[in-house]
């Protein structure tokens, strides 16, 4: 009797996708190095600190697989893939300063290595180089879409920071935040920056947005269930900073006592005291919130996959399906 086929692990799904576009990914890496180059020697060093740490290169991989699945050929796809990663790098540099993050991808964050000021300015440099690179496509629609994307990303990050410590945050507000800060860039990358054919660009963008939701919600689960060793980041960072994410929202919806405690803690902070963080974490762990949040992430992944029906059959499309299915189950 044949055993049912197990879904690929997130790492295996990424590896298979990488194999399909390995040559293009090498070109993207070279383009990233070129874009990070500068006569100001400290800039390449800071960029290298973040880029050389590795990471999943999920956004470039998403762009290249989508380009292959949608027959969006041409060298501009390499530029779009590199720009997506460069913008992501800028957000990492800025986020670690705003959040006083100590670890990124398992190593000390750039702000600890180079200082807050240089980390912020290096993030600005990454954004400037990304805009310069996308302008080289000479496609006004591509440039306009990126400008809109970066604007919405900034709005999402600002909304999250402005709402930190707000005990009244609800699910619609949470989704508005993650739509801007995460899903918007995923949508741009999946639509190959707008280079895909018009009849394909819309479903690809919708696919990327749902994938972005799944990715961010899974990331929020890791903030409660992961560790510096498994996730590469300081655990419970969002909770300490008073940022209310979906696991905490679901736990509070099911536990009025926890909701009251969280409201008191948020009014007194942030940052939340370590003993308060520990007590809240324990209540979240004892609830069904983490499992329920993971189920919601998986639902977004399935919604993303449904949008791929607009594409014809191909190995690249299959890789996108596998990659998406693995995102909600990732452990880092």
Short description:
By secondary structure, this protein is mainly alpha-helical. It has helices spanning 10-20, 22-36, 42-51, 58-69, 76-98, 110-114, 116-135, 140-163, 171-190, 198-225, 228-231, 237-240, 246-254, 256-268, 274-286, 289-307, 315-327; strands at residues 103-104, 107-108.
Which features characterize this protein?
two-stranded antiparallel sheet, mainly alpha, 332 residues, disordered N terminus, Farnesyl Diphosphate Synthase
Describe the protein's architecture and organization.
By secondary structure, the chain is an all-alpha fold. The protein has a single domain, classed as Orthogonal Bundle (Farnesyl Diphosphate Synthase). The chain has 17 helices and 2 strands. The protein has helices at residues 10-20, 22-36, 42-51, 58-69, 76-98, 110-114, 116-135, 140-163, 171-190, 198-225, 228-231, 237-240, 246-254, 256-268, 274-286, 289-307, 315-327; strands spanning 103-104, 107-108. It has a two-stranded antiparallel ribbon with strand order 1-2. Helix 1 (10-20) runs antiparallel to helix 17 (315-327), helix 2 (22-36) packs across helix 5 and helix 9 crosses helix 10. Mean pLDDT is 89; it is low at 1-5.
């Amino acid at each position: 009797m044949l055993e049912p086929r197990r879904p690929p692990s997130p790492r295996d799904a990424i590896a298979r996708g990488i194999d399909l576009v390995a040559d293009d990914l090498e070109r993207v890496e070279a383009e990233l190095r070129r874009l990070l180059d500068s006569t100001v020697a400290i800039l390449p060093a800071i960029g290298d600190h973040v880029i050389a740490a590795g990471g999943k290169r999920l956004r470039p991989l998403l762009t290249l697989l989508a380009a292959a699945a949608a027959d969006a050929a041409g060298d501009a796809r390499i530029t779009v893939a590199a720009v997506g990663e460069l913008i992501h790098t800028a957000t990492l540099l800025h986020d670690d300063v705003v959040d006083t993050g100590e670890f990124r991808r398992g190593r000390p964050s750039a702000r600890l290595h180079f200082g807050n000021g240089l980390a912020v300015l290096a993030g600005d440099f990454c954004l400037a180089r990304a805009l310069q690179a996308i302008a080289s496509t000479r496609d006004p629609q591509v440039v306009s879409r990126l400008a809109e994307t970066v604007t919405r990303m900034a709005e999402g990050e600002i909304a999250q920071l402005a709402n930190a410590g707000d005990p009244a945050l609800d699910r619609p507000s949470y989704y508005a935040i993650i739509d801007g800060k995460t899903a918007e860039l995923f949508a741009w990358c999946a639509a190959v920056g707008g280079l895909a054919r018009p009849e394909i660009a819309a479903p690809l963008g919708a696919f990327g947005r749902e994938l972005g939701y799944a990715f961010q919600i899974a990331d929020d689960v890791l903030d409660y269930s992961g560790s510096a060793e498994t996730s590469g980041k300081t655990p419970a960072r969002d909770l300490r900073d008073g940022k209310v994410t979906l696991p905490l929202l679901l736990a509070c919806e099911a536990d009025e006592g926890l909701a009251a405690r969280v409201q008191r803690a948020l009014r007194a902070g942030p940052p939340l005291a370590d003993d308060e963080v520990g007590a809240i974490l324990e209540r979240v762990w004892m609830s069904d919130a983490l499992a329920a949040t993971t189920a919601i992430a998986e639902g977004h992944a399935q919604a993303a996959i449904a949008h791929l029906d607009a594409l014809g059959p191909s190995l690249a499309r299959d890789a996108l399906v596998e990659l998406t299915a693995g995102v909600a189950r990732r452990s880092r």
